[in-house]
Amino acid sequence: MIIQLHKNIQPTDLQIICKTLEENKYSVTTVNTQFENYLVCIGKTDIDIRIIGHLKGVKDIHRVSDNYKLVSSKWKTENTKINLGDSVIIGDGEPAMMAGPCSIESEEQVSKIVAHLLKNNIKIMRGGVYKPRSSPYAFRGMGIEGLKMMYAQCKQHKIKIITEVMQASQINDMMEYVDIFQVGARNSQNYNLLDALGEIDKPIMIKRGISGTIEELLNSAEYIFSKGNEKLLLCERGIRTFETMYRNTFDINAIQILKDKSHLPVIADPSHGIGIREYVPKLALASLMAGADGVIYEVHEKPEEALSDGQQTLNFIESERLIEKIQLLKAIL
Ligand code: PEP
Ligand code: MN
Fold it and tell me: Which residue, 148, 149, 155, 229, is most buried by CB atoms nearer than 10 A?
């Protein structure tokens, strides 16, 4: 059960609400986000919610049977929109496109990609500076200096930045240069990181874990929301299955289920989803047809020379063709 409280609730009214919940044996978590104040109540399901609904200070009350609560569409029926400023809004019906290299590599690389994004009216650039790599000997990213360099170029053109944060101690230093923090698949259930991201006022895109279920992804988002940050996006990026013909099994089903179960925007990552360049554009289109609010994909001037994930990265021509097709798709959507 979720209780939304009035912002200016009197302490005595809150006490009465809490006492009533206690009498009914609920365990209560107080959640104050950048937008609302909530009480998340776990306990019996057969209560007549009018007992609490009529109390002073209660704005609204909802029964939520899912084990994730605040991210559930059972209480919030309108879709969440994420406003990044400069008219860049995710979840408003227009497919949100995020593109860029797997890793930020050099100033020259970034300026070429920025030019490509501008040419194709892509408003959000991706690019990792802290890279979770399966091998410790692989390129691990340029770190904060790479992010500052990326920011300097993006800022001039009002391009927004999404980049991965790997640990809580990086958040403060990155904060100024980031529009969306990405939680990578490997950190999807790093609850200390999720807690820390719940305490900041910045959008977070959380990826599904490598072997993560849909419910686990929703619960990871719930961690961040319950610590106070409602600005969340979910990302389907493929999961590990028994199949070996491609890098991951891109779960298009998940896009529809997530859209149904949650009010949060859903972003598809077909690059990591299949891991093979030539198939990425069709999966990007399929994701939008399945209801995704946006697509994040990897692009590089010379994918064959990329320092990471070149095999799944589009070149500029392939990326441009994809954007053209998405324009056509918009009419159908
Ligand atoms: C990435 O976006 O480059 C990345 C490392 O993704 P994932 O966490 O999905 O593997
Ligand atoms: Mn990558």
Answer: 229
Kindly report the pTM of this predicted structure.
Answer: 0.97
Provide the 8-state DSSP code for 239: B
Look at residue 71 and tell me if it is in a domain. no
Instruction: Find out whether the beta carbon of 141 lies less than 6 Å from any atom of ligand 1.
Output: no
Closest to 129 measured CA to CA, from 169, 191, 178: 178
**How far does the centroid of ligand 1 lie from the alpha carbon of residue 187, in Å?**
10
84 in contact with ligand 1, CB cutoff 6 A:
no
Which residue is closest in CA terms to ligand 1's atom 6? 184
Domain annotation covers residue 67: no
Same-domain status, 46 and 158: no
Do 54 and 168 sit in the same domain of this protein? no
DSSP codes, 88-112: -EESSSSPEEEEE-SB---HHHHHH
Burial of 69 (0-12, 13-18, 19+ CB in 10 A): buried
- Give the CATH number for residue 188: 3.20.20.70
Q: Which atom of ligand 1 is nearest to the CA of 308?
A: 3
Domain residue limits at 10: 2-62
What is the Å distance from ligand 2's center to 214 Cα?
21
Ligand nearest, relative to CA of residue 298: 2
128 lines ligand 1 (CB under 6 A): yes
CB-based neighbours (< 5 A) of ligand 2, an ion? 102, 309
Tell whether 115 and 162 lie within a shared domain.
yes
Considering the domain architecture, whether residues 180 and 122 belong to the same structural domain is answered as: yes
- Residue 13 and residue 157 share a domain: no
- Residue 86 forms part of a structural domain: yes
Q: Which residues contact 142 (CB under 8 A, 6 or more apart)?
A: 103, 104, 105, 129, 149
